[in-house]
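Hey, resending since the last one bounced:
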Amino acid sequence: MIEPPAPETRTNRRGRRSRQEILDAAARVMSVRGYAGTSMSALSKETGLPKSAFYHHFESKAGLLSAVMEQGAHAFFAAMREAHRNPPEDGTPHERLRWYLRRTGDVMENGEEFLRLLLVLVMSREAAEAPEALQTVISVREEGRAYMAHMIRSSFAGAGEETADRVANALAAFGMAGYDGAFVALQSEGGGRPVSEWMDQLADALAALGEAIVAGGAPGATGQRD
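The C-alpha cells again:
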C-alpha cells in the first residue's frame, strides 16, 4: 500500500505551487499594467491567494519583480537556445540569418509577457526601487546583444573568423534595435503582419550591411572604414 505524503511534504508542495502561481500572475499583470500599476490587491484577486502568501514568499513587491524578471530571463534564453539547436552548416549569410531570425521570432511570440515587461522597465524608471530587477534588465539586454552577435557571427563564419567578428561587432546593436522594433510593431498592430515578415526584413538588412562590411564598403564597429 502506498503511504500518503507526510504533512511537511504536502506543505512544501503547496508552498512551491503557490509561489509559482504568484510568479505567473505577477508576470501576466505586470506585463499589462507595469510594475508601478500592479498592486498586491490586484495580484491577490488574480490568484485567489491572500496577501500574506505573497509576503511569505517575497519580502517586498520589489523582490517579487526581481523573481519575475529572473524567471522570465531564464525561460526566454532557454527557449532561444532550444530554437537554435542544429543550425545549418552551409548556405549564404543571408540564408543563415533568415534561419536564425525566423526562429528568434518564434521565441518572441511565445515570450510576449516577459518582453513586454522588459521593455516597460527599460523605458521607465519603475525598476529604480528594485535594484536586483534592474540588474536583471541590464543583464538581459547585454545577453541579448551577445546573442544577436552570435547569430550574425555564425551566419558570416564562411568569411573567416576575424571578418565574422568584425561584422558581428558592427551590427549586433542594430540587430537588437530591429528586434525591439519588430516586437513593438507586433504589439501595436495586433493582427497585422506576421512576425516572420519582420524577421525576414531584418535578416535582409543585416545580410546586406554585413556583405558591404565584408567587401570593405561600410563602416566597421567603430564607425571608421577598414
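Residues 1-11, 221-226 have pLDDT under 50 and may be disordered.

Sorry for the duplicate.
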